[in-house]
Amino acid sequence: MDDSPAPFILFKADTPDVYQLALELVGQVHDILERADAARYHLKDRLDRNTTALTLALAHAADEPVHVRWKGYRRAVRIVTETATLLDIVARQGCAAIGSLAQARETIEKLQTQLAPLALQGN
Fold first, then answer.
1. Percent of the chain with pLDDT over 70
2. Domain 16-119: which topology?
């Protein structure tokens, strides 16, 4: 087990459910990547970067003025879609356990459902 200290979180998202889901996805993708030895490095790196970028995009969006937050949420939707596509590629290559992928897909579906209305607020 890791001896890391507990996280020190100063940031509190305006949409905590979405932010918490993004953090959950970070953990799920990390678990997938730890067990996906056969996956190509660039796929593993991109998945790791995407989940980090998603969490950061949500943090930045929450810090924006209300009338422009939709831009950050729209970026988050694109990142979620890209992450789902990368997981499909990893699954197609048979590099990850189906159960782990199913959990991540479920989290992605929840994120897409919750982010879609936030991303459309600027229209």
1. 85
2. de novo design (two linked rop proteins) (1.20.1440)
